[in-house]
Design a protein that fits this description.
With about 500 residues, this protein is an alpha/beta fold. The protein has 22 helices and 16 strands. It has helices at about 10-15, 20-25, 65-70, 90, 110-115, 120-130, 130-140, 150-160, 180-190, 190-205, 220-235, 265-270, 300-315, 315-320, 350-360, 395-400, 415-430, 435-455, 460-480, 485, 490-500, 505-510; strands at about 5-10, 30-35, 45-50, 50-55, 80-85, 170-175, 210-215, 250-255, 295-300, 320-325, 325, 330-335, 340-345, 370-375, 380, 405-410. The strands form four sheets. Strands 2-1-3-4-5 form a five-stranded mixed sheet, with no helix packed on it. The longest helix is centred in the last third of the chain and has 21 residues, at about 460-480. The relative contact order is 0.10.
């Protein structure tokens, strides 16, 4: 008897041929699941055996006949055989809390979700009541996973305590940072987890409506979420009586139009209101006056998706992971010039070296590592000399860097850091909402200064431009209204500090 087969329906897996593999397997018992996030092995086909699921990958449709033949004898003899997937070192050493179902369940199967702990958190929240649920989130130490790392429990208590006839939950799913894909993976692969987290938030803070703001580049995530919302609604997890709580909560998906600035929470709120996405001055904070001027709880996908587990397992269970004030786990995303690109969920505290070298396997090109940009296009370039820094919010802040959304883009020694510094300024200039002068004008001036620095004919000319560039970075960092202008100095200043030769400088000149 032919065993059951599992193949991801994740958009990355599909982009590299998973649908073609599925067509070649049309005569077998095949289930399309979420992805494990071992992206260098996609399409990754898993097959049921008495010992567990064994894997084959990266697979093409042309490999299917030989694979089916191998399954009649010794599967391990097939050249693409990987053995038991759960025993692969890349996966076995992870601590998957958020992505515990990744690669195992079918995205739109409510039965699969419930069979693997789904809606236990919502049931617990209903039993505890709003005050105790908010306290549990606060006690867990959960911090915003979108980059700012603000304590989630403080937001929940603020929105809950604010009196208003209407409140909102807004999920920021505008995942625009380079090298990040955890939000997309979760929305495509485990949409009920996000829905459950938002429902818990809604009944806890007294909001009866929510929005998931998804970037337009994620059409599969949008379609999956909308279908999952229909399933959840028809099964009583959304609507007039959420999970038997006696409280109403419903939500919908809204699609952005491609503006990076709408990843900033107040610009996102303007966009949701039908306006051009422009950053708002604070105060007032969104928790008091957010969407349509009403109290609004705004969180990133991973933050809201962390809530069901915290309620199901308890605050202390979650606090047992991590270090210092960085508690729980973080889904780090390895991309760029990396041999083993994919998702690594680990508790805060592992080092960047462990992530890049042990999990990532070094550069895909085989050339020496030059740097890793952590935290998206506004993140600092971290040189190998600092790779032993723990992945922790405070530890990274101490070296002038940030964790951001957990994206790590790796580069080898062929990358020109002066060009990357110029790109950062150009990116900021193009994506600025234009509201504040430092960001609007400073980023454009930044491109010009870097061009003059690189074109300077002599030492004194370069020295002069370095001084101007550093002053400009300070102005952007401390004078901008939001993080777009405020953090563009990170990639520029780090490139200048650690890779002065790329700018035609001596080390002493860059540090002056």
């Amino acid at each position: 008897m032919m065993p059951r087969f599992y193949l991801p329906a994740d958009s990355l897996a599909r982009a590299v041929g998973a649908d073609e593999v599925a067509l070649a397997l049309q005569n077998v018992d095949l289930q399309r699941t979420s992805s494990r996030g071992l992206y260098w092995l996609e399409p990754l086909l898993e097959v049921d055996t008495p010992q567990g699921r064994i894997g084959f990958g990266p697979l093409t449709a042309a490999d299917v006949p030989s694979l089916l033949e191998a399954l009649q004898g010794d599967p391990s003899a097939h050249p693409l055989a990987l053995g038991l997937v759960e025993e692969l070192p890349y996966l076995k050493t992870q601590q998957r809390l958020l992505f515990a179902r990744a690669g195992i369940t079918r995205p739109l199967s409510l039965d699969d979700y419930r069979a693997h702990g789904g809606f236990e958190g919502l049931n617990r929240a209903v039993a505890l009541g709003g005050e105790q649920t908010a306290t549990t989130v606060f006690d867990s130490g959960l911090r915003g996973r979108g980059g700012a790392a603000f304590p989630a429990g403080i937001k929940w208590r603020t929105v809950r305590a604010t009196q208003a006839a209407q409140k909102y939950i807004v999920c920021n799913a505008d995942e625009g940072d380079s090298g990040t894909f955890a939000d997309r993976m979760l929305m495509e692969g485990d949409p009920f987890l996000l829905i459950e987290g938002m429902a818990i938030a809604g009944i806890t803070v007294g909001a009866n409506y929510g929005y998931i703001y998804v970037r337009s580049e994620y059409p599969q995530a949008v379609a999956t979420l909308r279908e999952a919302l229909d399933v959840a609604r028809s099964n009583g997890y959304l609507g007039a009586n959420v999970g038997g709580s006696g409280q109403a909560f419903d939500m919908e998906v809204r699609v952005g139009a491609g503006a990076y600035i709408c990843g900033e929470e107040t610009a996102l709120l303007d966009s949701l209101e039908g306006k051009r996405g422009i950053v708002r001055a604070k105060p007032p904070i969104p928790a008091l006056q957010g969407l349509f001027g009403l109290p609004t709880l705004v969180h990133n996908v991973l933050t809201l998706a962390s809530v069901p587990l915290i309620l199901a397992k308890g605050a202390q269970f979650y606090r047992d992971y991590g270090m210092g004030r960085s508690l729980g786990t973080m889904p780090f995303q390895l991309a760029g010039n990396i041999r083993h690109g994919g998702l690594v969920e680990r508790a805060f505290g592992l080092t960047l070296r462990e992530l890049v070298e042990d999990y990532g396997g070094g550069t895909a090109s085989g050339r020496p590592l030059k740097a890793a940009q952590v935290g998206g296009p506004l993140g600092a370039w971290v040189p190998p000399s600092q790779f032993d820094t723990p992945l922790d919010y405070e530890a990274f802040a101490a070296i002038g860097a940030m964790l951001g959304h957990g994206g790590v883009v790796v580069a080898d020694d062929s990358l020109d850091m002066a060009r990357m510094a110029r790109f950062a300024m150009q990116f900021c200039a193009e994506e600025s909402c234009g509201k504040c002068t430092p960001c609007r004008i400073g980023s454009t001036r930044g491109v010009e200064v870097i061009d003059r620095l690189l074109a300077a004919p002599d030492q004194s000319g370069r020295d002069e431009q370095v001084i101007i560039l550093k002053d400009l970075c300070d102005t952007l960092q401390y004078g901008s209204l939001c993080a777009l202008g405020g953090m563009v100095s990170f990639p520029v200043a780090s490139a200048l500090k650690y890779f002065p030769a790329d700018f035609g400088l001596q080390a002493s000149e860059a540090d002056q």
